[in-house]
Batch of 2 targets.
Target 1
Amino acid sequence: MNDQPLVTKINSALGEILRRKPMVSIVCPCYNEEPMLPIYYEAMERIVFSQLAKYDFELILINDGSKDKTLSILRELAQKDERLKYISFSRNFGKEAAMYAGLKNAKGDYVCVMDCDLQDPPEMIATMLDRLDTEDCDCVATRRVTRKGEPKIRSAFARAFYRIINKISDTEFVDGARDFRMMRRCVVDAVLDLPEYHRFSKGIFMWVGFNTAWLEYENIERVAGETKWSFWKLTKYAIEGIVSFSTAPLQLATAVGSIVSALALIYMVIRVVIAMIWGNPVAGYPSLLAITLCLGGFILLALGIIGEYVARTYMQVKQRPIYIQKESNID
Ligand code: UDP
Ligand code: MG
């Protein structure tokens, strides 16, 4: 009879667990999204929170050092709705850092990452949760099958990026994959276990593995505000992806160096033979200059590539935090 209270306690804890609805955390990075936030919040309330009564929700919005009124809108929304949590950074740390902060603070059994410009349709959240409930998968991810409304040059470069990275990396990259996805807790914990400073989430999500189901949809244009990605920023992001998930560029110098050395050796033998038969007329200044410039260029390129890796190693070794939080309503 001594353990009766323990049994009661276990029973009530079990009852609590059984009564508790599964919790879904929605993580959404925001940078200068003043015009978008009220529209986004209204859409989420109408399409997700009020429709999916089976779940409890928390909406984690990360203010990534916005220069407009994003933070004050977040404060106002958080006062009206206790499901709304926000984290505000001390400056702009980038979308990757914002997603990381959101995942780290998410308490849900399921965690969804999405943008707040409604390019990631909230209607799909119900389908995602449904598939997680009914299928044997740990993550439901999305990919755009069209790039309608996007500048042609941007689409062409994006395709080239996916072709290259899939050739040189062991991790599979899906063309058109968005960051918009719903994950079970186990996937989120695995993602958070990767302590890298330079985060390339599209690769990290694939690298951690687990069963992923894919939902496809047509590209939707931003509802308000403008894209934060310039062509230069996207190029840097692509380099980030390649350097984070492949060391093949480092082998380029070895490969080209070996070929050039072999050719140089053959050429030397030919020159010696020619000199022995016909003497040594001084000629070939232009070809000498071309070869020197070409090799000089290649050596600089190889050094640059090594530099990219060294720089990342350097940043990682410094162990700076991925983001700095200035304000939040999460305890
Ligand atoms: N974003 C961010 N920090 C940045 C840039 C963007 O948090 O430095 C957020 C932005 O507010 C949006 C999402 O990341 O919610 C995607 O950005 P955007 O719509 O500009 O990108 P695109 O859809 O054009 O790729
Ligand atoms: Mg967008």
Target 2
Amino acid sequence: MAAKAFKALILGPPGGGKGTLSKRLVRDFGFCHFSAGDALRAEIAAGSAIGNKAKDYIGRGALVPDELVTDLVLGQLENLKNEPRWLLDGFPRHAAQAVALDAKHDVDLVLDLDIPEAEILSRLGGRRVHVASGRSYHVEWNPPKREGIDDETGEPLVIRPDDTEEAIKKRLQHRT
Ligand code: ADP
């Protein structure tokens, strides 16, 4: 029997834990997780036309223009037709995106994370990521076994270009 459709959104500030919480929701409730930020980073890694346009905005901590993100996200959600239980992370970020999403999908649940700014600055400042898998560490609270190295692959961890203090402050001005 086909799974019953359930469409959920997870919103909240950068560093608010959307990714971490999403992983638990996927594990416990079998959602298909789709992150707007991950989709954009995949386009950048692939060197696509969208990725090349998005790169500069993301590096500066600015929002990527709506026409790029909305087409990308709504287009990729179309590909999830066989996955009726999805959790959309990081989209919409403002009213125009919400209107575009609403025109195509009936959303069942919205989770909106409310995290103090000081906590966010500390979380993002110490974040280190393994680009290929999206695994994320924190230098203090969730350090890798070897400093700067991913536990599973032995590959180097990086600081996301938008995790600099300047970019973080800018990202907080346009929190979801
Ligand atoms: P965070 O929530 O920590 O900012 P994300 O991975 O969700 O991280 O997003 C990283 C960057 O991707 C954002 O700073 C922004 O530049 C871009 N981005 C992600 N989602 C959107 C969106 N819905 N609209 C515009 N830009 C977006």
